[in-house]
Amino acid sequence: MKKPIIAANWKMNKTVSETEEFIKKLSAKDIPEHIEAVVCPPFIGLKDAVKLKQGTAIKVGAQNMHFEEHGAYTGEVSPVMLSDLQVDYVILGHSERRQLFGETDEVINKKVHAAFKYGLYPILCVGETLEQMEAGDTEVLIQKQLELGLAWLSANQVADMVIAYEPVWAIGTGKSSNPELANQTIKQIRKYIQDIYDTSTAKSVRIQYGGSVKPENIKDYLKQSDIDGALVGGASLQVESFYKLLV
Ligand code: PEP
């Protein structure tokens, strides 16, 4: 049985001490067994987050990484480094990485392969902008992001990873997507994976919705047939609010 996965994407928020405080408070709570809870702090908080969550059900993820193992890439963090820290997940291709840091589908695909090579589970983000949605391009755009982002991955790898469908217009705007509409797009993603891989891979891969998810609306998403969890920014920054998403 696949577990819904609720992941906290803190973006560039929280110092090391704030991260410690959050993980300590969350560790003291009962994480429901039927949900996988993942916290993704900035790089500097990962080591403490991994240490403090030991013995709990909490998983830790990074928000990005380089695809190379080491070398002259000033300011970057490699998959070897994350693997050494025993990080579980890594968010790849978030729309902020694509829009603000120029990440292409080809670069993201290299990162996805590097994640698997070092035992990290990728959370691959895809999603359309407002202009693309208004032009009726959502389906074609997402298929392209998937075709390039998943290139050369085996069916087993795709079955094990997480895809986050995040309409860019819904991220951090308070304008969450209609849950039925999000489910429709996620169904299309699953159908596409079935077409390029097979039915069992399409059934196994967990596909999250992301975009202004909060305690008041999460149930509307989780009750949809094809939505396997949520990637959450703003509402994941306070322990109480994040915990409400899990229960
Ligand atoms: C995100 O950062 O991926 C996100 C979905 O943010 P928010 O929940 O704030 O819209």
UniProtKB/TrEMBL annotation:
Q: In which pathway does it act?
A: Carbohydrate degradation; glycolysis; D-glyceraldehyde 3-phosphate from glycerone phosphate: step 1/1; Carbohydrate biosynthesis; gluconeogenesis
Q: Name one GO biological process term.
A: glycerol catabolic process
- A Pfam family reported for this protein in Swiss-Prot or TrEMBL: TIM
Catalysis performed (reactions): D-glyceraldehyde 3-phosphate = dihydroxyacetone phosphate
Stored CDD domains: TIM (cd00311)
**Binding-site residues, substrate:** N9, W10, K11, G172, S212, G233, G234
Q: Which GO terms describe its molecular function?
A: triose-phosphate isomerase activity
**Any GO CC annotation of this UniProt entry:** cytosol
Localisation per UniProt entry: Cytoplasm
**EC number, as in UniProt:** 5.3.1.1
Q: What residue stretch is flagged as signal peptide?
A: none
- What top-level class of enzyme does the UniProt entry assign? isomerase
Tell me the active site: H94 (electrophile), E166 (proton acceptor)
Question: Which keywords belong to this entry?
Answer: Cytoplasm, Gluconeogenesis, Glycolysis, Isomerase
Family per UniProt? Belongs to the triosephosphate isomerase family.
Q: How does it assemble?
A: Homodimer.
Q: Which NCBIfam families does its entry note?
A: tim
Q: What does this protein do?
A: Involved in the gluconeogenesis. Catalyzes stereospecifically the conversion of dihydroxyacetone phosphate (DHAP) to D-glyceraldehyde-3-phosphate (G3P).
Identification of the protein by name: Triosephosphate isomerase
| Organism field | Desulfuribacillus alkaliarsenatis
